């Protein structure tokens, strides 16, 4: 009987596939279902669906978790292991993983690993259970979590041993009763996935607890302005930093979206004597935001780090102002490369959330996306097991740091913060020129010769290199 | 003058205790790291979780060690300032104003 059914199914499949192929070959291309294949390849499946979503909604669509574009070429950078010229670190030596943020502050913030949980707000982004799980996981490994642009959620504060709060453009954390409870203050002026664009959460998506934490009335929407209230000039910003530092004694930092205006922005941060700067690259995630702001605005994380490090070094503040990098860092290798390029620590958002829901995603799929377990407006937030989620986050962070320690050992280093640019090389000549990393194609002593000899080739697109331009000028 | 001597004695006590905590944290950090290595030899889910906790504890003890070192340096700085008479001068300056 089973054999008969099997035979019947095979015959039906054979008939269907044969007919489909024949029709795909014979039908006019314009009337052919196969046209969807090249059409989808042309615009890409994501763009195809987003065109349809825009056409359906008529308003900017809200894409979760940030841009899918890989702007930073992390894969073109490699660490340089050592064997004899310099010896690897013996395996019984513990690798120091801690960092201190805000050396100049009265109460510096010391974390045990250089990875922190990124700013993801309660309500605007995540559910209360998710925020508590993130805080518990961070506390277990001795690192900090971040409030995001929200008010002070008491349960989150209580669960987090080290809690960084955002002095935000919504104004919800901006009163002394709230910001005096923080271990560090991050003045939020922008983020990688949104730039400094305003954002609003409509009243229909705001529940009673959200209203309590944010101090909203029933029916009132939550609005994140494009500017921080009360900061309309550089002087206003400098005054704010000094006031917060004076009032609290904790490290006071600035968070911005990475931008090509970076040095001009950092100049003001240096003048304000902030304790740390958080740079959120164009790859930065968000609970939901317009694809245009995510894909077409900002500067890649990698270049934000190298440019900021160079700027701080030139200004002589590299020891005074900590650089925290964030945006699209999803592997321990990328995180460690960010540190080697000059960041003191990193924030992770998307990867932390994925680790958090990892084993529990089966509760949602295949009928709901895993995010429905963690986002505030998700349908299944009540099903998230906080202890399991925080345990998965702890395991993930431990695995990440251990992988980073393995790299430190093979580089002959005893602290993650000792890893620098000299421990890296790149396989991209332009990246070498832009970042100051050595090019892996040729020996250290031949770096200059390589670039001198290949200069004409680099400009073979019709433009002139400096030397060719000189030749042209001499001819005329 | 006597107050400053008392302060110096207190600072010396805190300094020595910090050095002790620093040493203990360093030793415990090594012990915890050894535990992690031993526990990961077993193919057991719960032991693996305990190993991860030990690893995390080892790192946090390492952090405590470095925090102690940083605090000990600050205290050393204050003691040196007392020896140079800087604190005495600043106290007198405050009293005049």
From TrEMBL, chain A:
One of its GO terms (molecular function) is glutamate synthase activity. Belongs to the glutamate synthase family. Residues 100-413 form the Glutamate synthase domain. It holds the Pfam family Glu_synthase. One of its GO terms (biological process) is glutamate biosynthetic process. The lineage of its organism: Bacteria, Bacillati, Bacillota, Bacilli, Bacillales. It comes from the Bacteria. This is FMN-binding glutamate synthase family protein. It comes from Marinithermofilum abyssi.
From TrEMBL, chain B:
This is Uncharacterized protein. The lineage of its organism: Bacteria, Bacillati, Bacillota, Bacilli, Bacillales.
């Amino acid at each position: 009987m089973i054999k008969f059914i099997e035979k019947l199914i095979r015959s039906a499949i054979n008939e269907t596939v044969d007919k489909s192929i024949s029709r795909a070959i014979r039908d006019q291309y314009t009337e052919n279902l196969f046209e969807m294949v090249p059409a989808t390849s042309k615009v890409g499946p994501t763009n195809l669906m987003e065109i349809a979503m825009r056409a359906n909604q008529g308003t900017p669509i809200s894409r979760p978790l940030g841009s899918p574009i890989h702007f930073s070429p992390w894969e073109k950078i490699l660490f340089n292991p050592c064997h004899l010229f310099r010896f690897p670190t013996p395996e019984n030596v513990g690798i120091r993983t801690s960092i201190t943020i805000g050396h100049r502050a009265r109460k510096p913030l010391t974390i045990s690993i250089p990875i922190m949980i990124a700013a993801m707000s309660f309500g605007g982004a995540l559910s209360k259970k998710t925020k508590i799980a993130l805080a518990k996981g961070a506390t277990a490994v001795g690192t900090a979590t971040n409030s995001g642009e929200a008010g002070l959620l008491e349960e989150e504060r209580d669960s987090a041993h080290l809690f960084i709060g955002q002095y935000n453009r919504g104004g919800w954390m901006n009163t002394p009763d709230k910001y005096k409870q923080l271990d560090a203050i991050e003045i939020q002026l922008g983020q990688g996935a949104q730039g400094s664009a305003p954002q609003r959460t409509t009243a229909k998506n705001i529940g009673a607890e959200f209203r309590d934490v944010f101090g909203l009335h029933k029916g009132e929407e939550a609005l994140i302005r494009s500017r921080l209230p009360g900061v309309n000039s550089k002087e206003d910003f400098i005054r704010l930093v000094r006031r917060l530092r004076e009032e609290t004694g904790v490290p006071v930092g600035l968070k911005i979206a990475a931008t090509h205006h970076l040095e001009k922005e950092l100049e003001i941060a240096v003048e304000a004597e902030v304790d740390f700067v958080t740079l959120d690259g164009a790859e930065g995630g968000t609970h939901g935001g317009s694809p245009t702001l995510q894909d077409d605005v900002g500067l890649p994380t990698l270049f934000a780090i190298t440019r900021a490090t160079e700027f701080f070094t030139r200004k002589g503040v590299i020891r005074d102002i900590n650089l925290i990098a964030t945006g699209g860092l999803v592997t321990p290798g990328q995180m460690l490369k960010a540190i080697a390029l000059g960041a003191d620590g990193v924030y992770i958002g998307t990867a932390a959330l994925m680790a958090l829901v990892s084993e529990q995603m089966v509760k949602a799929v295949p009928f709901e996306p895993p995010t429905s377990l963690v986002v505030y407006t998700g349908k299944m937030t009540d099903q998230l097991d906080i202890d399991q989620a925080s345990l998965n986050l702890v395991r993930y962070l431990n695995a990440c740091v251990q992988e980073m320690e393995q790299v430190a050992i093979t580089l002959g280093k005893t602290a993650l913060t000792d890893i620098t640019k000299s421990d890296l090389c790149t396989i991209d000549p332009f990246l070498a020129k832009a970042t100051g990393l050595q090019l892996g194609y040729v020996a250290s002593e031949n770096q200059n010769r390589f670039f001198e000899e290949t200069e004409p080739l680099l400009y073979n697109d019709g433009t002139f290199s400096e030397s060719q331009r000189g030749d042209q000028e001499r001819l005329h | 003058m006597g107050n400053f001597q008392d302060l110096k004695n207190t600072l010396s006590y805190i300094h020595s205790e910090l050095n002790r905590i620093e040493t203990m944290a360093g030793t415990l950090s090594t012990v915890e790291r050894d535990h992690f290595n031993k526990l990961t030899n077993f193919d057991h889910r719960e032991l693996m979780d305990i190993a991860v906790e030990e690893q995390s504890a080892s790192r946090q003890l390492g952090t405590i060690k470095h925090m102690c070192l940083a605090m000990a340096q600050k205290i050393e700085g204050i003691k040196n300032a007392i020896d140079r008479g800087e604190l005495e001068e600043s106290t007198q300056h405050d009293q005049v104003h």
